[in-house]
Amino acid sequence: MRKIIFISLLLLIFLGPALAEAKTVYVAQIKGEITSYTYDQFDRYISEAEKANANAIIILLDTPGGRADAMQNIIERIKSADVPVITYVYPPGAMAASAGTYIALGSHLIAMAPGTSIGACRPILGYSQNGSIIEAPPKVVNFYISYIKSLAKASGRNETMAEKFITEDLAIDPEEALKYGVIEVIANDVDDLLEKADGMKTKVPVRGEYVTLDLKGAEVRYLEPSLKDRVITYITDPAVAYVLLTLGIWALVLGFLSPGWHVPETAGAIMIVLAIIGLGYFGYRSAGLLLIILAVIFFIAEALTPTFGLFTVAGFITFVLGSIMLFSGGGGVDYLISREVYSQIRLIIITIGALLALFFAFGMAAVIRAHRRKAQTGKEEMIGLSGEVVEPLAPEGMIRVRGELWRARSRDGETINVGEKVKVVGMDGLKLIVVREKEKKHEKENTNEVK
C-alpha cells in the first residue's frame, strides 16, 4: 500500500505540471492592403488559435487600409472568434489606417507600439485619371460614421474620437489613443504586451461573455506567413498590380503584332491574371481556380498550335500555382483541410503536374520527329499543301501548314498579308516557297523552276 501511495506521489510531482492546462498565445502578422486574401489570412490564423484552444491570438497589424467588404468580413470573423483577438499595431512605424482602424475597433483588445498611428478613415470611391481622389458622397460617409461609432460603442471606446477619424480624417499616436480611450495598451513588443494585458477584460464579448485575459507566462507561438502569403502581399500593392496590368496589355499587343513567336502573349496573359488577382477581388480559392483555368487554356493552345513546349511550361507553372492556392495550407496553419491531408494533396498536385508535363513533352518530341521526317523525305511531301500566313511574307515570314509553323518565302518576292491562303510550290532547305492560293493554275508549270 505504501508503495502505491509513494508511486502516486511521484506521478503527481513529475506529471502534475504536464497535466495542468498549458497557456498559449498565438502571434500572426497582417501587413499590406486589406483584400479578400487578408480575410483568408485572418480566418486561418484565428482558426488555428481556436483549434489549439489558445488563451488569445495577437495580430500584428500594419496596413494603410483597403477594401471595405473585406474589412467588414474580417470584423465579423473576429466577433465570431472563440478566442480573444488582440490587434497590435506593430512594429514602430506601422499604421492602422482606414480599414485597419475599423478592424482594430472591432477587436477584443487594441495595443499600439511607440511610433505607430491609427485613424484617417474617410472613405473614398477611388482615384480619377489625373490621380486626384474621388470623394465618397455624403450618404456613404454617413454610413461609415454610423458604422465606426457602433464599433466604438459596442467596445466601450471613444465614439467622438472614432467619428473624427472620418469627419476630420484624424490620425493619432499611441499616447493620444490611450489618453482618449481608443486603445487599451501601449507596448514595446509582444512580451511587454503580454505582461501589460494580463488580467485585463476584453472590450468585446468572446463566446457571449467578457473574458479576463490570462497571459502571464504563456507560451508564444508564431504563425509565419507562407511564401504564398508573401507573394500575394507583394502583388496586391496597387502600384505593382497596375504595373503588371499595363505590362500585360502591352505584351499582348506585341504578341498580336508579331504572330508565331507566342512569348509576349504568354507572358502578357500571366501578368494580366496576376494583376487581376492583385487587385484583391478574389480570395485564395477563386484565384486558384482562375490560374487553373488559365493553365487549361495554355494546354489547349499547345495542342492546337505547337510551340515546342512554351505553352506547356506556362500551363504547368500556372496549374501548380493555382492548385496550391486552391488547397491552401502550409505556413504553420490549416485551411479547408488538415495538414496531413494537405501533404497528400500537395503530392498529388506535383504528380499530376509532372504527368501533364511528360505528356506534352512526348507530344513535342513527336512534333520534332515529324519535322525531321519531313526534311529527310524531301520536298515532295510538302509541295502542293495549302497554308495560311500568320506573319506577313515580305517576302519572308511565317505560315501555318497542317497546324505547324514554317518559315516561308514568297516565290515572286511579293508581299502576302496575314490571313491569306498560300500553296507550297517548293522548298529551299527547310524554308517553304509559296504562292498565293489563287495562282493554283500556274502551280505545276512553275514548280519545276524552283530550286
UniProtKB/TrEMBL annotation:
Record field: transmembrane: 239-257, 269-301, 307-327, 347-368
Keywords: Membrane, Transmembrane, Transmembrane helix
GO cellular component: membrane
Residue intervals of the NfeD integral membrane domain: 240-362
Keyword presence, Membrane: yes
Keyword rRNA-binding: no
Annotated localization: Membrane
Entry-linked PANTHER family: INNER MEMBRANE PROTEIN YBBJ, NODULATION COMPETITIVENESS PROTEIN NFED
Protein's UniProt name: Nodulation protein NfeD
Species this chain originates from: Thermococcus litoralis (strain ATCC 51850 / DSM 5473 / JCM 8560 / NS-C)
